[in-house]
Amino acid sequence: MMLQRVGAIAVSDDPLHVPRACDGRAPDVFRPGGWVQMRQYRENEPVDFAIVGTGAGGGTLACKLAEYGFSIVAFDAGPYFRPLEDFASDESEQTKLYWTDDRIVDGANPLQLGSNNSGKAVGGSTVHFAMVSLRFRPEWFKSRTMLGYGADWPLDWREMWDYYTEVEQALKISGPVTYPWGPPRPRYPYRAHPLNGAARALAKGCEALGIKWTETPLATLSAPRGLAHPCVYRGFCVTGCSTNAKQSALVTWIPRAIAAGAEIRDLAMVGRIEVEPSGLVSGVHYHRDGAWRFQRARNVVVAGYAIETPRLLLNSATPRFPDGLANSSGLVGKNLMAQSNQAVWGRLEHEVRSYKGPPSLAITEHWNYEDKGKDFFGGYSYMSQGPLPQLWANTLFSARGLWGDRLVEAMKDYNHVVGLKIVGEMLPQESNRVTLADEVDQYGLRIPRVTYSWCDNDKRLIDHSLKFMRRALEAVDATDTWIQDDDTCHLNGTARMGSDAHTSVVDVDCRSWDIPNLWICDGSVFPTVGGANPSLTIQAIACRTADRIRALARQGSMRRANILSMQRG
Amino acid sequence: MRLPGERDLIVMAGIAGFSMALVSMLSAASAPAARSDTRLAPRRNRSSQAQTVETARKLNRAAGMLAASVLADSSVEHYRGSFKNKAMYTPLLVSALTMATSLHGTADMRPFAHKARDATYLVAAATGLVGSGFHLYNVGKRVGGFSWQNLFYGAPLGAPMAILLSGLLGFCSERVREAGRTRPRIFGLPAGRAIAAVAGAGLLGTTGEAGLLHFRGAYHNPFMLLPVTLPPIGAALLLSAAGDRSGRTHCVARSWMRLLRAMGLAGVGFHAYGVSRNMGGWRNWSQNILSGPPIPAPPSFAGLALAGLAALGLMRAHPDA
Ligand SMILES: Cc1cc2nc3c(=O)[nH]c(=O)nc-3n(C[C@H](O)[C@H](O)[C@H](O)COP(=O)(O)OP(=O)(O)OC[C@H]3O[C@@H](n4cnc5c(N)ncnc54)[C@H](O)[C@@H]3O)c2cc1C
Ligand code: SF4
Question: H-helix or E-strand containing A87?
């Protein structure tokens, strides 16, 4: 633990154990050792919104609502990192970014939780995400009606198109000058990054097979922005970016939120949402600094991602809501959707050094937009890959059983490894779900049990993608190709939005059907996932939700303070 | 401490050469012309002959400024490309030679063309042409062909043009110098107008290059708009002066060239600031000079502006030149 002198008092600076955002200030993520002023709210005076989680959903919403003048306290169970100082170029050290609290996994295809799907930090999973920032294919918002599977979203893609633009601007997404798929979109604010060896292999494979490819739109800077440096292409992205090039919520929405008067509470685990006799929620119980506390709030937004969100709702059950909050439909925790993340790997004669630069610099969304020649519903994109050495050794061990001399021998080829990996759509199934186990965690809260099994459609999609990617690799003369067939990424669903209170948990504005001052705003609200990484959509929904909350508050022609008694719009 | 390798030494020498040349060009540019005139210029026909020599020296200076920019820029960029192909040493050698030749020309008061200078300038021009071919080939063979990705990150198509321009201006300088008492002509064209046209076209080409690379940087700083807005106006002024037979003195064009000269030199400062905005700033110079904006590039605008000034001067002295 490091001791740092500030004025006359020595303060502990161990972000994993002692909160940093206190005493009217929060870490300045752009200046080593710096602080920014932060407004603080009293616990017994209700704030307009208590937001649980500060990731893609919660961080964005906190920023937008604060900028609209609402009083906000946003809680995160994780630490408040200073990327310039706290992040090492060391995979083991950086496991501190992952949510590794106890969870039980089961089902026919149990999910592997932690590094590849959940973060625990101010900024949420975006602190270690891979920055791929894709829009959904418009038809996916009506996949039941237009494509015959899954469920329709209550959102209109044209409205989403504008919110996507807002997020792309806010994160200064670096992308291709023109995007080859889907309806026109405005130019990305920053230009695409240079391709690395792995991306060039993807591009050549696509050209050989006659499909389109492009530079991946990424949330990392290709030119300076304010105090944030442009990307240095060292490729430590999924273990946290130490240059601030990565436009995570931690360095984008959160500083804006604080500047607009929001308070962030780090190392603050929310354990239960309080419900008044009236049936409205009145605040959150949270654990910080070794004690349970209570923050009063007029509205509560849950944004803990697709496992912690249903867990909190279920853990907050009361005699009035014995099945958990917002759960009259019985759907809280159900329809959990991961995305398939299978890969084909091979070896190229020349050096690839795929780990240089952001891991997925080139992409093809061909099979997201092409419906012909498929024996499955849904779509997938595939991207070039750049695994860091420890992850790669782990993959060789877990997927191929290599150990000892054989592992060492295989690792010698690390510079020649080339791989393609999908982000594939998995269909919503009620049996894939989050429930509560009887065991409790370090806070004494019941831990989640995550049940997951692939359906036949999921398997057919995976099969199709693996065959296709193998052809793509062989087309660039990759040898020794092999398949990694058990990986998944991204978690969505579990509190789906819809237009009917019986078949969804929240409405189009992310407001729960059952409790008008309880909102859910994160990846949980997805009715389907598509074959694109979800964070841009989560943030776009959060921007829309903020606009809707402002509109509802105005429409109710009442003081913001009374937003909880707003009529449904 | 690790001793610098052979390649590092070449690059350091390139950068040192660039700085020295820049300083000497600048001090030459600001030295009062009259002093040198009286020192060595032949008595006969003093005004017109001295004027042509003076113009020729100005053109040497412009060619040298461009060559210096190429030397430093290609040193850094080809070092970054690890001199993968032996031919990548060529622009370093040729631009160094061109720079030395130009310094020689700048100091030379005699009203005769110089064979070695002439030859060097022709080699420089040829290098520019061949280099452009190489760069085109490099971009075309990359996956995606002539796409934005490859225009941004492949070999810069416009860069070798700078050494071509340097050679052309140097060649013009020798023609002007040898004209002596007669009307200076280049390939049968009036020299002043021909040089104005070359410099104007050069400004447009260089603007294209700056435009492409500043677009790559998403114009994140509003000052990045200057080199894509000011030079085309300068080019238009030069080209219209080249076509103008009214004998006007082109005050606006002249002032604009001075503005462009200042812009080109200020660009060095802006790019140095750009380097500082990369991770580690100037403390991490050995990496950031390579990844930040190219510090030696903007003076090529100054070089072309100097050529423009020389051409306008020549046209003023010889209305039919
Ligand atoms: C390795 C990796 C790579 C990824 N790559 C991409 C990518 O390239 N592109 C893309 O679009 N997406 C990517 N993702 C997914 C993306 O990061 C997530 O989809 C997105 O961040 C989810 O947003 P969220 O707001 O739902 O949750 P999160 O961003 O995970 O935020 C949830 C936050 O809530 C906090 N929290 C949870 N419960 C509580 C509680 N009870 N009390 C207090 N705090 C709580 C957590 O600590 C966490 O910080 C990646 C994810 C990972 C892990
Ligand atoms: S490669 Fe770029 S985005 Fe990734 S960690 Fe390094 S600087 Fe950050």
Answer: none
What burial class does residue B23 get, using C-beta atoms within 10 Å of its C-beta: 0-12 exposed, 13-18 middle, 19+ buried?
exposed
One DSSP character per residue, B90-135 reads HHHHHHHHHHHHHHHHHH---SS--HHHHHHHHHHHHHHHHHHHHH
- To probe the interface with A, which of B147, B220, B224 has the most A CB atoms within 10 Å? B220
Q: Nearest ligand, CA of residue A127?
A: 1
Do A529 and A425 form a contact (C-beta atoms < 8 A)?
Answer: yes
Among A190, A88, A174, CA closest to A131: A174
Q: At B111, list the tokens.
A: 């009203």
CA A130 / ligand 2 centre spacing (Å): 9
Q: What is the ipTM of this complex?
A: 0.90
So what's the pLDDT on residue B152? 95
Task: Calculate the alpha carbon distances from A167 to A38, A170, A490, A537, A544 in Å.
Answer: 24, 5, 19, 9, 10
For chain B, the domain total comes to: 1
Tens digit of pLDDT for each residue in A232-285? Answer: 999 999 999 999 999 999 999 999 999 999 999 999 999 999 999 999 999 999
Ligand whose nearest atom lies closest to the CA of A218: 1
Ligand 2, residues at Cβ distance < 6 Å:
A 220, 231-237, 241, 243, 245-246, 357-358
Distances (CA, A) of B77 to A533, B3, B148: 36, 21, 19
Count Cβ atoms below 10 Å from residue A297 Cβ, excluding itself: 27
Residue A497 CA to residue A494 CA, distance in Å, equals 10
- Cα A456 to Cα A377, A461, B273: the distances in Å are 10, 9, 57
* pLDDT tens figures, B271-284: 999 999 999 999 99
Kindly report the pTM of this predicted structure.
0.92
- For residue A53, how many C-alpha atoms fall within 13 Å in the half-sphere facing its CB? 31
Report the phi/psi class of residue B159: left, alpha or beta, with left for phi > 0 and alpha for psi in -120 to 50.
alpha
Which residues on chain A are in Cβ contact (under 8 Å) with B220? 190, 223-225
**What gap in Å lies between CA B267 and CA A233, rounded to an integer?**
26
Interface residue ranges in chain A relative to chain B, Cβ cutoff 8 Å = 172, 176-177, 189-192, 194-195, 200, 203-204, 207, 215, 222-225, 229-230, 232, 243, 245
Q: Is residue B25 part of a domain?
A: no
Residue B95's domain comprises 6-12+45-317
CA trace torsion B179, B183, B188, B192 (10° rounding): 90
Q: Which CATH superfamily is domain A11-561 in?
A: FAD/NAD(P)-binding domain (3.50.50.60)
Ligand 2 centroid distance, CA of A241 (Å): 5
DSSP assignment letter at A525: G
